[in-house]
Amino acid sequence: MKRILTYMWLLSVAVGGAAEVNVSGTVIEKPADEPLAGATVIVRGADGKIKKFASTKADGGFTMSLPDDVVTGFRLEVSMMGFGKRSLALDSLSFPVTVYLEPATTMLKEVTVKADRIREQGDTITYTVSGFAQEQDRSIGDVLKRMPGINVEKSGKIQYQGEDINKFYIEGSDLLGGKYGIATNGISHEDVGAVEVMENHQPMQVLAGISFSDKAAINLKLKNKAKATWSFHGDAAGGYSSQPEGALWDGELFAMAAMPDFQNITTIKTNNTGEDLTSHTTDFFASRRGTDLSRSISVSLPGVPDLSRKRTLFNRSVLVSTNNLYKAGRGEFRAQMDYSFNRVRATAANVTTYFLDGGDRIVAEDRSGVDRSHSLSGKFIYELNQRRTFINNTLQTEMDWDNVSLGMTGTLPNSQSASLPDYFVRNNFKMIRRFKSNQLVTILSTNEWESEPETLRVKINGGGLRQHIGNHAFTTNESASYAFIIKGVTVSLEGGLRGYLRTMKSDLSGSGLPALPDLDGTHYFHNLIHTNSLTLYATPKFEYWVKRVNLTLDAPLKFSHYAFDNAIANRDEIYFSPSLSLNWKPDNKLEFTLRGGSNRSPMELGMIQPNPVLTDYRSLRSGVDDFYNLTSQRVSGRVAYKHTRYGIFGNASVMQSWSNRPYTMIQQLYGDYVTYAYSSAKSDSRMLMANGSVGKTLDFMRGSLNLHGSFSRQESRMISLYDGVAANTGNGGVNSVNTGWSAGAKISGTPAGWLSFDYSVGVSAARLTMNGIKSSWLGSMENELLLNVMPHKKWEWHIGGEHYRNELTEGHYKTVVLLDTRLIYKLTKRVEFSGCLTNVLNHKSYNYTTFNQLTSFESRRQLRGREVLISVSLRK
């Protein structure tokens, strides 16, 4: 026994005596003096074979271990696409070593190794920005669109593996909340070193290990040059447009600070070039307002559903936004303030066809109008986010003023003007306290107030009409909950009280509206309605975690008392709406999610409206004269897969839902006028939706490929009457089925040092079936291409445009090709000049057709004509 122990000791000494060399260091970009993430580091032996290799991390660091006695003749090689390769004798270096790489043009045929553009560590996926960026990119949003697994909508909203993200961080701080479109559209990609995706991200530390999250978060890792300093960039441009004829301008000033205890993003933008600024201040995390108010007046400018807004928006827009984060002790304070102004003009020729058994009814309109809107909002947040305690108080206010003027000629010549202000205030307080590592107490208080005073004025038939609607609501929600963990099972119970007060008053006066049957032949309609409710609720919740499986059951139970001030009878209701979800991750590559639930809920209280209101010059809408409850069921499944080593990301989901309503909407035509009301008749509907996507890196040209597709089928029922007589069927019931599908692909890359490109193609088709009679499939196709040619390091030439092919009627297509070009001269790294020519072919109009349950809508819209724009860009 002693002999065996002696041999083991001698062996351990021998093994331990085999010394190792720790090959470590940092790779730096010269002359920017910034760390390079994703550079490839190789140790090559005297025989030329690879002995060890690694990739640099976000801070440019790398480390490897080699036996001490075999380094003679070895070489250290460092390389990265777009930089000159360095080769150093290993035995001549002392570690850690600093290796500088200088920018250089790298021909594709000379590339022998590739850097890891995507890395995975636990639940965090790291994308190297330089591995996906191209010369034509300006914002980090341009680069995010090429990262597989990440989808960026035109509004700036981000999805990861087909699901909305739940947080957007900059250097780990939540500066913008849900308004991160300001960052995706504003932060220069040159200031960002890496993008981190944190899967199964739980934003509240106090819930870690207690409440499961299947959502992901995005974190931008800034380069050193963008930290602890102010970064600025700005653009100023001027030019001329042929339609609308006149001068053009486009300007932007963007400032960002990322200090250890302070962050700020401030932007000022203005343009009349067709850029829609509304998405820059959209809160993608905003919850539905508890006041449940919606506008009744529906006067709006005509839109184009198939074309990019930049082709159809005739605007004058201004946006001022400032966002600040201050870290105070253990907590932080955030202040967000936005102001925007938009003046939009639109002109369209429309033909609306109502499908009727006795002969279709056609209404022709030529519309021309202006929409002027102001919006002012503020959000002030204090948050303490720690392992034991979470406190958040958010005070939010939003004020909107929208004034629309619309003139029409055609079947019923008229002019309309609408004033549509909206005032909203909300305060939300939430506190969570964790005890003994396995117990939680939560207190929540939410109070909201909203007012929507709407006014519509119409001049028609030689008379004038005035519709005024006052809609006001207040709601309060106070609750407390307790949760504890027992052997992997989290049990919680929330109880609370919700109060709701709403007043709606409407008056229609004037002359010009013809006497209509069932409306007493008058020109004056009046509503004064109070809809109030008090709800007591309890929500038990169970979560079971075992290894990689999470099972969650919610079983909310509510008792509600409704009082309607004699408009309809008061009543009491009980609601039970259970839901179940299952999440399973067998490994880090694969994830399955199943969800299902049943819901019983009251109808929207705003639907209680006995008398009609005028919603536009020829439409009236009545509400329900009784109280109804809705029931629905849903089931969904989702699968997601990723293989970061090969740059593959894929996801697919399917959802089936059933809705049951004890009322049905009635559309009734009287000549050229239409009324909408509700009948006590069952209206069941069901919907099937499926979608999926697959993304893959194309490392041979620093590119990426994404394929996506979707399918939907919705069945519903409506009643249509014409002059009081049932249309389409004997009883007026119309069963409609809307079916649609879409498929598309996006590909980008840099096939040569002087050329890069982005290309996308999408095809879709839709069909409407009414009472078993199927209409033809109507399809559309869209192609979009951007080529970036770099004949010299100081010059760039962008060539791009869109191709639209839309089927207006069966076999009849409308094709439009819109081309743009831009030439850029880079005077220095901080100053560049450019000249842009858009809509080179000068197309000035576009036709399209849409369908709904009972009508078709054909429209001819104006497009922005040929435009010339000269601009200068500065950055610090």
List unreliable stretches of 5+ residues.
1-18, 106-115, 725-730
Give the biggest beta sheet.
Answer: 37 strands, mixed
Estimate what percentage of residues fall within beta strands: over 45%
- How would the global form be characterised? globular
The counted number of beta strands is 53
Structural class: mainly beta
Query: What is the average of the pLDDT values?
Result: 87
- The number of helical elements comes to 4
> What integer value in Å does the Rg equal?
31 Å
Estimate the helix proportion, in percent.
under 10%
Cα distance, first to last residue? 74 Å
Describe this structure in words.
It is a single chain. Helix content is 4%, strand content 63%. The protein contains four helices and 53 strands.
Task: Offer a quick outline of the entry.
This protein is mainly β and 876 residues long. 4% of the residues lie in helices and 63% in strands.
